[in-house]
Specification:
Layout lengths: L2 E7 L8 H14 L3 E7 L18 H12 L4 E4 L16 E3 L1 H9 L3 E4 L1
Parallel strand pairs: 1-2, 1-5, 2-3, 3-4
Amino acid sequence: MKTSALFVIQSDPRLSRRPAEAVRIAAGVGAWKKVDVAVYLREAAVLVLGEQADALQDGEYYARFLPILQELGHPVYVQKGAAALGQLGQATLAFQEISDEQLAALAADRACLLRF
């Protein structure tokens, strides 16, 4: 049976390299196919899904690693109603908006929770 991990990313990618590193780690762990990985983006972190993501700190990581998550079938969730969603433009990959209550249920079902 696979273990599971939820990567909660809430650092601002305009100011920090942490979101890029979190996406890189999530894609790497997910590629093992031994861990059921999910990524949740909160607040300004949702900007990593936008068409201008390459202009963010370590922006090339988003174009390189987010598609790997999608190809492997690992879901990407975003904070429902996050203010930064209006700044995305065209999203670079599919995502699902979830409420804080849904996030709590998702986190409770995961063996590991990693915050960035």
